[in-house]
């Protein structure tokens, strides 16, 4: 299956998954880090929405 025509967010997700799988970091550490990152981006998005 080719990702050539996939939306950008799908391509990014696949890249992140591949990178994290290759990192040999345990799953819980990855989940914890992704949770922090997700919360950070959601907070930034909320700030942007409030300032516009």
Task: Describe, in plain words, how this protein is organized in 3D.
The protein has 2 helices and no strands. It is mainly alpha-helical and 52 residues long. The protein has one domain (8-50). It is flat. The model has no long low-confidence stretch (mean pLDDT 96). Pfam families: DUF2496. This is DUF2496 domain-containing protein. It comes from Marinomonas spartinae.
SSE diagram, text form:
Blueprint: H1 8-22, H2 27-51
Protein name: DUF2496 domain-containing protein
Fraction of residues in H or I helices: over 70%
Indicate the overall shape. Answer: flat
Major sheet description = none
Weakly predicted, low-confidence segments: none
Number of strands: 0
Please give the count of helices. 2
Average residue-wise pLDDT: 96
Total individual domains: 1
Distance between the termini: 40 Å
Gyration radius from CA atoms, angstroms: 14 Å
Structural class: mainly alpha
Strand content: under 5%
Topology as a string of helices (H) and strands (E): HH
């Amino acid at each position: 299956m080719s990702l050539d025509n996939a939306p950008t967010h799908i391509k990014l997700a696949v890249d992140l998954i591949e990178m994290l799988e290759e990192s040999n970091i345990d799953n819980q550490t990855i989940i914890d880090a992704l949770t922090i990152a997700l919360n950070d981006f959601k907070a930034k998005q909320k700030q942007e929405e409030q300032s516009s």
